Amino acid sequence: MLDVRAVVTGIGSCLPPDVVSNDDLSLVLDTTHDWIFSRTGIARRHVVRPGTSTGDLGTAAGAAALESAGRRGCDLVLLATTTPDQRCPATAPQIAARLGLAGVPAFDLAAVCSGFVYGLTVAASMIGAGTYDSVLLIGAETYSTIVDPADRGTAVLFGDGAAAVVLERGLPGTPGEVLHVELGSDGDHAGLISVPGGGSRAPHLDDDASRHFRMDGREVYVRAVAAMTRSARSVAEAVGWRPEEIDAFVGHQANARILRAVARRLGVAEERVVSQLAEVGNTAGASIPLALAWAASQGRLAKGDRVLLTAFGGGLTWGSAAMVWPGVHPVRAEGPSPG
Ligand code: ACO
After folding, report:
1. Distance from the CA of 151 to the center of ligand 1, in angstroms?
2. What CATH class does 1-339 carry?
3. Is 217 near ligand 1, meaning CB less than 6 Å away?
């Protein structure tokens, strides 16, 4: 049987045009630019205007990724998101239809900040099994719609955005190949990152406490460093990469201190750490593909580079992936088109 691999052939992104700086937030919250920047590395973030949805951003990013890959369509559309357009139905089929792909299978995948790495695993597995030849994997989020604007502990951390990759069937050794993936979860600690209301356990969203995102930042920090280090090290060892052979370390963009701590533990030099945090903050399931698209557009990723991805998020969930960077040109969509 032919040895088939999933290969990234295109990448696109979309950020909403409105930007909120740390100084803007300090006018409405008991916080300062210095606190936010020194604790997180975040200086500003993009946010949607009321009425713009995750699906709007995801559609624009998906179209950009298809253009980058030189394709009109694909066999499967996957959307990694925690902030779908509505509870029912899933957002992915609507994105597919808006991209002219009605009829193509499409579904949402909920793994919070690990969503992109989970999606990469699903896409690579389906291509490897011969189920589909091409997958459009989108990470899109609008956390501005779920954070409590009065909670300085979370409101300063998140931003909105979307990015997407196209994966196609290819041969081993093709630049863009996804070499190895590993995932994990621990639902015993689901309460550390949650939106308590709106699900079957507590369906009503009638007060702020039930509809807003909440996180035990201190506890999550410790667990994120440990899990990302363990998972990324295991993936690097599985593909036989020594730390000095890793050209780019792209971790979930939650906190620059976490990225540095994990890289230090892995033995990856600080200049190999990709961080877009200053510009976009934490964009949850969109953060890794946004960082990849940004790094590629800055010339920080070259064809053949060894890229190590790692993520950690609500669930708790985590996952890592090793891939070889393809010779793709990232396409940036100008802004979301309304649905
Ligand atoms: N401005 C000023 N002071 C603040 C702010 C703020 N915006 N937020 C909190 N503080 C205060 C706190 O009240 C606390 O004050 P106290 O000491 O008087 O109690 C003090 O600053 C320190 O608070 P900590 O929470 O200990 O601050 P920490 O250094 O841990 O930074 C942060 C907080 C940035 C949230 C950090 O814990 C973190 O990054 N955690 C991990 C986040 C993460 O990895 N998330 C990934 C998953 S996200 C997802 O899945 C959607």
Report:
1. 11
2. alpha beta
3. yes
Q: Which two tokens stand for residue 152?
A: 């300085």
Distance 256 CA to ligand 1 centre (A): 13
| pLDDT(2) > 70 | no
Half-sphere exposure of 197 (CA within 13 A, CB side): 12
Q: What gap in Å lies between CA 312 and CA 86, rounded to an integer? A: 24
CA of 226 to the centre of ligand 1 (A): 18
pLDDT tens for residues 175-227?
999 999 999 999 999 999 999 999 999 988 778 788 999 999 999 999 999 99
Query: What pLDDT, on the 0 to 100 scale, is given for residue 208?
Result: 76
Q: Which two tokens stand for residue 316?
A: 């708790």
Helical ranges in 129-216 per DSSP H: 152-155, 208-211
Q: Hey, is 3 helix, strand or coil?
A: coil
What's the rounded Cα separation, in Å, for the pair 315 and 8? 27
User: Token digits for 307?
Assistant: 């890229």
Domain boundaries, given as residue ranges, for the chain = 1-339
Lookup result for tokens 């041969």: 171
pTM summary value:
0.97
Three-state DSSP state, 102: coil
Cα–Cα dist 240/141, whole Å: 34
Catalytic residue list contains 252? yes
Of ligand 1's listed atoms, the one at least distance from the Cα of 152 is 7
Q: How far apart are CA 48 and CA 142, in angstroms?
A: 7
Name the phi and psi angles at 156, rounded to 5.
-80, -10
- Tokens found for residue 270: 């600080």
